[in-house]
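CHAIN AND CONFORMATION:
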Amino acid sequence: TETRIRSYFVGLGLTGERGRFSYDAAIYAGRTHNKINSPDTHTGSADFDGQLLGVSLRGGGLLWQNPTAGYGIDLVMQGDYLRHTTERHDLSGLAGGKISERTTTTTALRVEMGLPMQMNDMSMRPYLALTSFGGNPDEITFSLGGASTTFDAADVVAAQIDQHHVFGLLLRVGPQLGLQGLIHELSGFLHEIGRFFHHHTPTPGPGL
């Protein structure tokens, strides 16, 4: 089974500074085109649209700086929230079978501790990062021939999300600040939710 989600959205961004600290925010909305390719012997294929609404907040600043050696310690935090509603749609492998409209929510929290430094004309920032993902995949309601059944999609997805924490030690040359940095991290967030909140279609049980 192959799942593809294409997103098209527009948004507004805000950025600012207060002393050593900076903040960025973005709100965005748009549509998705969702396509599932699966053999008709399983559940079959589907093609349907959805709507997106998201908020991303990012803030950070310098906690300490060595006045002579050209390095310091900074902290960056980012939070993301995304709401995705998919429309009711048919399944080609199950004549008359439909999946009802669903709304999933996804969250992410990222914390970075960095060591920004200036070496001649080059800026570097080794940093330690922790990212945690969560959310609610909503229930799935499947109907066929006048009968329907509902089951908890969290049984399929949430166990993976609850355990999905990313921890890493990385080096960034030329730190990404302002909205550029926010959009960079937001792209990573959208990539992750594409992996963990893909559409799950049920196999009809004996009661249908």
Residues 178-196 form the longest helix (19 residues). The chain is about 15% helix and 60% strand.
